[in-house]
Amino acid sequence: MVHLNALSGWAVLCGLVLGIGLWSLAGLVPRLSRPRLASRVAPYVVDVSAGARELLSRHTVDPLPVVGALFGPAFQRLRTLLGSVLGGGATIEMRLRQSSSSLTVEAFRSRQLGWGIGAALLGLAVPLALAPVRPVSPALIAAIVLVAAACGIVFCDRMLQRAAQKRLARIESELPTVLEFLTLSLSAGEGILDALRRVGRVSHGELATEFSAVVMRVNTGVPLAECLNALAAGMRLPSLTRCIDQVTGALERGTPLTEVLRAQAQDARDDAKRELLEVAGKKEVAMLVPLVFLILPVTIIFAIYPGIFVLQFGL
Question: Are 102 and 139 in contact (CB under 8 A)?
Fold first, then answer.
């Protein structure tokens, strides 16, 4: 009869991980055989053929071909279960758009599931490592694993939310400068599309990147107002939405855009000043916390304690 101690268990686990890693690396090696005719035609008819979509989805197992082929169905069920439990597919799609991520909702759910599984394995490894020193009850191990998995899932969602907030903050800070540059270009005699193209060409910010995407869509035949409205709907930034509404309204009514953009730039500057004052007020209150709860009590103690000491000893 073979008895496995803790060291043997870790050896089996490391060997299993090494085998899966080597198998995955072997799966990444490109095939030398010629692809079939269906595989070559499928990418060109994926928009109109359900069979082509099924063929491509069956062979797309990024990033690990072997692991994806083995655990793809189970991951699909877990991802569906995670999406049904958490919900908020529209919210995830909006945050992915705001953070300029190339992931889809399904890909983000897969990443979120991976974070949850990784955190659960980490939570399982801690009690197993402490088992030789102090045994842990199975109920406590299950609770630790569930809490760790939930923390991993929430942490992944929080990372996406933080990335979206940071990018929106950068866009909001760039908006006054970009509007002033557009005003200057329009005053020089350029059209609104040429001004947007110039901003996208000479600037390197987040808002300039979005305007470059708008120009590219306009070049494919989509109306400019529709592209701008899609940008506003995707970003959900109040200052940008208000500016785009004014611009599209001016385009529909034939109002001169120079004055509209100049007024919007001034409003954006005022909003930035107002937000800066609000942040300064919050920081000022936060600075009082160590003064009231740390420095002031220590000062009182040093001021009163010597007198109490003198009175107690009658000096």
Answer: no
| Percent of the chain residues topping a pLDDT of 90 | 17
What per-residue confidence (pLDDT) applies to 167?
94
Phi then psi for residue 137, to 5 deg, are -70, 150
Q: CA of 288: how far to CAs of 281, 285, 291, in Å?
A: 11, 5, 5
Q: Do 249 and 210 meet the contact criterion of CB atoms below 8 Å apart? A: no
Q: Decide: 6 and 125 in contact? Cβ < 8 Å.
A: no
Question: Domain map of the chain by residue range?
Answer: 169-272
- Which residue shows structure tokens 């095939």? 31
**Architecture of the domain spanning 169-272:** Up-down Bundle (1.20)
Contact status, residue 225 vs residue 251, Cβ threshold 8 Å? yes
CA geometry: angle 107, 97, 61, nearest 5 deg: 15
Query: Looking at residue 271, what is its pLDDT?
Result: 84
The pLDDT value given to residue 70:
61
- Round to whole Å and give the CA distance between 302 and 36: 85
Q: How far apart are the first and last CA of the chain?
A: 81
Question: Which of 58-72, 212-226, 238-252 is the least confident region?
Answer: 58-72
Q: Are 35 and 42 in contact (CB under 8 A)?
A: no
The three state secondary structure string of the chain is CCCCCHHHHHHHHHHHHHHHHHHHHHHCCCCCCCCCHHHHHHHHCCCCCHHHHHHHHHHCCCCCHHHHHHHHHHHHHHHHHHHHHHCCHHHHHHHHHHCCCCCCHHHHHHHHHHHHHHHHHHHHHHHHHHCCCCCCCHHHHHHHHHHHHHHHHHHHHHHHHHHHHHHHHHHHHHHHHHHHHHHHHHHCCCCHHHHHHHHHHHCCCHHHHHHHHHHHHHHCCCCHHHHHHHHHHHHCCHHHHHHHHHHHHHHHHCCCHHHHHHHHHHHHHHHHHHHHHHHHHHHHHHHHHHHHHHHHHHHHHHHHHHHHHHHHHCC
- 6-27 vs 65-86: helix axis angle to the nearest 10? 100
